[in-house]
Amino acid sequence: MTRISSKLLRLIKENQRFLIVTHLNPEGDAIGSSLGLAMGLKKMGKAVYLLDRDPVPETLRFLPASELFRRKPPDDTPDVLILIDCNTIERTGFTSLKAGDTIIIDHHGPEQEVSRAVRSGKISGALISTTASATGELVYRLLLTLGVPIDKDIATNLYASIMVDTGGFKYSNTTSRSLRIASKLVEAGAEPWRIAREVYENIPYRAMRLLSLSFSTLQKKDGVAYITVTRDMFKRTGTTAQDTENFVEYARWISGVEVALLFREEDGGIIKVSLRSKGRIDVSEIARAFGGGGHAPAAGCRIKGTLESVRKRVLRLVSDAIRADRSGN
Ligand code: 5GP
Ligand code: MN
């Protein structure tokens, strides 16, 4: 487990004004870990500005303090910028954000690159661990080390972040540590049934109609299942990309499937690909080959091209990975 450096603790204790920013298209971990940290820092008497270029998804607006997110950077320069659940400015969608110091709190790789940035002084400090199931785990440890009491609202945010990034404690990144931390968060007041209901059982009707259109494209070949969402489907159902949250999960549930894919048509000739693994294949490697990233069980990338050409390119790499796994490589 990565140690929390005394320099990082000092940067937090000795500064006053913090800007917390997370990645584009934020999901439960991005939002929950940011909010948990923001509330913890506020308890320490700090001033916190929460930033995300994209809005908080509707299903996450029940999270305590989610209304604090702003979509424009602050006018003044904060003491410390915290990049959370991402480790580059590019992933935030902003070109530059001014601050005295910059800290990274994240569970995406590669760790070495972040360590190098810290050593070279480009980054002032980092808490990065790719073995953490969610950034929320890291925030929990950080707040504990800082001596911040975890109240019900912080617990709710951090529990949501771990629940979402472990796919509801089902993905291969679910560890005894994630369950132990989740248990502590429940003791602190997080309500698992309520959080799961808000996140997973609160789908707008229009999104279900989109799902039914999208599922009519379902294909399964060897260990891969994939579905497609076209712009025409969005138009017919009055939906947006946000309504496709978790669609790829349903394809992952199919018996005999190792990897599930969702191809989503975006503007400007871009196809967004969501990749999910049942545990044997590291889909982040495949996403990285196309300039994306993520984790072994869940990853994504954006590829320029037609639906047909992108599907072909991605399916080729996925089939190769499944074949290599079967032959024991
Ligand atoms: P999703 O398929 O739900 O959009 O993303 C799954 C995970 O893959 C995210 O939590 C994130 O870690 C990663 N991811 C998705 N899209 C991108 C991308 O375009 N670039 C990078 N680096 N990671 C992505
Ligand atoms: Mn995450």
Write the layout of secondary structure elements.
Blueprint: H1 6-14, E1 17-22, H2 28-43, E2 47-51, E3 69-70, E4 80-84, E5 101-106, H3 111-119, E6 125-128, H4 135-146, H5 152-165, H6 176-187, H7 192-200, H8 205-215, E7 219-221, E8 224-229, H9 231-237, H10 247-252, E9 259-265, E10 270-277, H11 283-289, E11 293-294, E12 298-304, H12 307-326
Parallel strand pairs: 1-2, 1-4, 2-3, 4-5, 5-6, 8-9
Antiparallel strand pairs: 7-8, 9-10, 10-12, 11-12
Helix pairs in contact: 2-4, 2-5, 4-5, 5-6, 5-7, 8-9
The structure holds guanosine-5'-monophosphate and manganese (II) ion (MN).
Residues 29, 85, 107, 134-135, 165 line the site of manganese (II) ion.
Query: How many individual helices?
Result: 12
Major sheet attributes: 6 strands, parallel
SSE topology string:
HEHEEEEHEHHHHHEEHHEEHEEH
> What is the CA-based Rg, rounded?
20 Å
Proportion of strand residues: 15-25%
**Approximately how much helix is present in the residues?**
40-55%
Shape: globular
Low-pLDDT runs of 5+ residues are none
What is the level 1 CATH name of the largest domain?
Alpha Beta
CATH topology of the largest domain: inorganic pyrophosphatase (n-terminal core)
Strand order of the largest sheet: 3-2-1-4-5-6
Span of the ends, CA to CA: 28 Å
Mean pLDDT: 96
Structural category is alpha/beta
Give a count of the beta strands, DSSP E runs of length 2 or more: 12
Hetero compounds:
guanosine-5'-monophosphate, manganese (II) ion
- How many distinct domains? 2
